[in-house]
Amino acid sequence: MYQISVEEHFDAAHALRGYRGKCEALHGHRFQVVVRVRASRLDDIGLAYDFTELKAKLRAILERFDHSCLNDVMPFDKINPSSENIAATIYGEMKARLEEAPVTLEAVEVRESPESGVEYREG
Ligand SMILES: [Zn+2]
Question: Which range marks the domain in which residue 72 is found?
Fold first, then answer.
């Protein structure tokens, strides 16, 4: 089994609704996003999956979040733009984009800072 990961980031603002503390006010992060997929076999040139292709799929998802106020961007206009919800949202969209790919989505990790992050996986 091979596990492959790519990492991208986006810069965005968010404010956590209903949170009692600093994070209730609008503030920004450079959100680091790591996507992990697994593959059980390699292709004929020894690759499990092309990093470039995986990165392009992730970038396509993150595009609408970059330089935005997440609270105005779907689905965070309805649900709180917490790192937990961001990770689960990216996971769902990534899973749909990998439907035809020879790999299985394992996890999506979203980090708000070097010290704090969330990993989402199914189950
Ligand atoms: Zn925050």
Answer: 2-120
User: What's the pLDDT tens digit per position in 44-62?
Assistant: 999 999 999 999 999 999 9
We report the CATH number of the domain holding residue 31 as 3.30.479.10
Q: What is the DSSP string of 81-113?
A: --HHHHHHHHHHHHHHHTTTSSSEEEEEEEEEE
pTM of the model: 0.95
From ligand 1's centre to the CA of 120, what distance in Å?
17
Q: How much distance in Å is there from the Cα of 15 to the middle of ligand 1? A: 7
How many domains does one find in the chain?
1
